[in-house]
Amino acid sequence: MIDGASHPLVVIVSGPSGSGKSTLVNKILELPDTLLSVSCTTRPPRRKESDGKWYNFVSEEEFQRMANAGEFLEHAQVFGRSWYGTPRRWLEEARFQQKDLILEIDVQGAEQVRRELPRALAIFILPPSVKELEQRIRERGQDSAEEIGRRLERVRQEVKCFGRYSYAVLNDELERAGREIQSIVLAARCEVGRDTAHFQRILQSLGG
User: What is the C-alpha R_g of the chain?
Assistant: First the structure.
């Protein structure tokens, strides 16, 4: 098990497709000293997606090689089709840069990360309603009717995992939701015991 009390803070952001996870992750990234983990996936890029921004697009052969070599912090197959995974190197990069690591991953991946990093901060993003969620997915124009159906069914399964998260943000109004998710991260940075060595050095310098 990796020592979750040492730097960096690992922030997990999960939520149904169309809930606005990426937008709220961008709000977190507006904070100083944050680093986005870029996931690997075997699915083809959608329109306007570029390699290396949110995903690195790899072949199934390369993905399996990485998985067999233990290069993923977490990985899972979604809808029984494409694979997604978080390269472990991002954790080391965050430690090297002394930044907090932001993971936008699904509930399967979140469970894996929390088993290895039990002190990771887990935030679940909720949409205002299933109706609005479906509208958001359809307005993106990226998925077939069959794919939309699969996504909505997955929403029902993911929401059942809601209670496993430490915090939840209702994304019904972006400005407020953005403030809330930033506040959660900022509060976690101040948690006593998260970075004991750092606080101890300060206390010792003050004579504590």
Answer: 18
